[in-house]
Amino acid sequence: MSDTLATNVLTYPFGNAGLDPLLPDLGPDGVGRVQLPTGQQAWLFTRHEHLRELLRSPDFSSDFTRPGFPLIRPIPEDMPRRPDGSLIRMDPPEHTKFRRMLTPEFMIKHIRTLEPLIRQTVVDALEQMRAAGQPADLVEHFALPVPSMVICHLLGVPYTDHDYFQERSRILLAWSSTPEQARDAIEELRDYLTRLIAARRGERGEDLISRLAAERVATGEMTEEELVGLSVLLLIAGHETTSNMIGLSTLVLLEHPAQLRRLRERPELIDDTVEELLRYLTIVRTGLTRVAVADTEVGGHRIAAGEGVIALLSAANRDADVFPDGAEFDLARGSHQHMAFGFGIHQCIGQPLARAELRIALSELITRLPGLALAVDADDVRYRDAVVFGVQRLPVTW
Predict the structure, then answer these.
(1) pLDDT tens digits, one per residue of 69-84
(2) Average pLDDT over residues 332-346
(3) Which of 90, 253, 292, 385 is the most buried if burial means most Cβ atoms within 10 Å?
(4) Contact assessment for residue 244 and residue 358, using Cβ atoms and an 8 Å cutoff
(5) Which H or E element spans position 297?
(6) DSSP, res 204
(7) What span, in angstroms and rounded, lies between the C-alpha atoms of 214 and 223?
(8) Nearest 10 degrees: Cα torsion 156, 238, 131, 366
(9) CB-side exposure of 160: number of CA atoms within 13 Å?
(10) How many CB atoms lie within 10 A of CB 160?
């Protein structure tokens, strides 16, 4: 039996309240129990040190086919519990094999070769937004198209199809979607990428999908179904997370004019600013879900095999022991211990690309659009009710 906590069981997830995440008060221990929409109960860990311990422990699994895995949303009976190639739901050694295949594509030295393309994409999007006139929706004209164009280039997905995959990504990640709608959205994405990969068979393209098809699928190291699964994950993660970060980051900077002015005066602070924005916003606010595969212990609490746990990244990124005054945005904080990209073997493989896009997008935005300001009151900004936190629209003038 695992430890019994004296605290009440909380309803999870907690939802969003604007730029500040809703965080439970679990006292100095930072550990509690939660009830999920599926009816399951799970452990909740919020302390920075506990998350480091949990997320690097081999006693916890990311495979949601395992009994006891904490599901935040129900899964339809006829939906595959883990489509082939779903890297974020694999454990070693399978996870290790596929991650090694992708690592060279997202190494910093490779991302640097993409920076001219990223910068040109950013500049073109800003010029198109200026030409469209003001006020303009920064999400529609800038935050969404920039990372979408970049990930399409990287993967070899035609950007002309962006409406198709963006709409299905929105359905898949929206809390308002039914389990059946989410199932249909991901199956349609898989069908789309299956057709795309089939059309590339035999080609020697420079994009990631073509290279993996030629170098991994053709040699038998990877099945075509696994390539489809990896491509779905990269396509969704590659535009959803960064686009929401660009929109939210712009809102945060506009809501902190003194710090925005400091960044304009000292552009060399852009790297520190990006890290602080990642920490402060932590847009995956549902946390990371795992299930214990053996009797184990985290932070002095005994976790039984088969019990689910949730690592609440947004809480760990505001842990006062690591980030004093963590509820405050301070671009000079030095937030390099944040967990916005997770921690351990599942730490986001695309983080060098995300950092490059954020750094270039924000730098060009505040340089090329002097006088950038919200065109609506900040209280009127509407947020997304989705797995990945963001703003629906961000009307701006300049």
Answers:
(1) 999 888 777 766 555 6
(2) 92
(3) 292
(4) no
(5) strand 296-298
(6) -
(7) 11
(8) -140
(9) 1
(10) 8
